[in-house]
Amino acid sequence: MIAIRDTLLLILSIAQWIILIHIIMSWLINFQVLNLRQPLVGQVWHGLNQLLEPLYSRIRRMLPATGGIDFAPLIVIIVVFFLQRLVATGGF
């Protein structure tokens, strides 16, 4: 049972880092620190978008329109954090 818990915590931790990297990359792209025309940056960005966009789009459908601010990544980070605590304390 401990192995399953530790595996779930590892998966949630990796998901949390992927989402944080996506958020930071979006800021750096918007502030023109990173350029999507660079091959590595473009590949990483498109890969992260393909991975996370299905999750974000489901949350965006439930959220009201907020203009230029996207709260979907914040909601996903909160859910991942909640799941980490739930798994760590054995509350599932």
List keywords for this structure.
mainly alpha; 92 residues
In short:
This protein is an all-alpha fold and 92 residues long. It is 77% helix and 0% strand.
Question: Helices and strands in order, then pairings?
Answer:
Elements: H1 2-30, H2 39-62, H3 72-89
Structural notes for this entry:
The chain has three helices and no strands. The chain has 92 residues and is mainly α. It has one domain. Helix 2 packs across helix 3 (72-89). The mean pLDDT is 93.
Residue share in helix = over 70%
Q: Approximately what portion of the residues adopt beta-strand conformation? A: under 5%
Mean pLDDT: 93
Sequence of secondary-structure elements:
HHH
Q: What's the story with the biggest beta sheet?
A: none
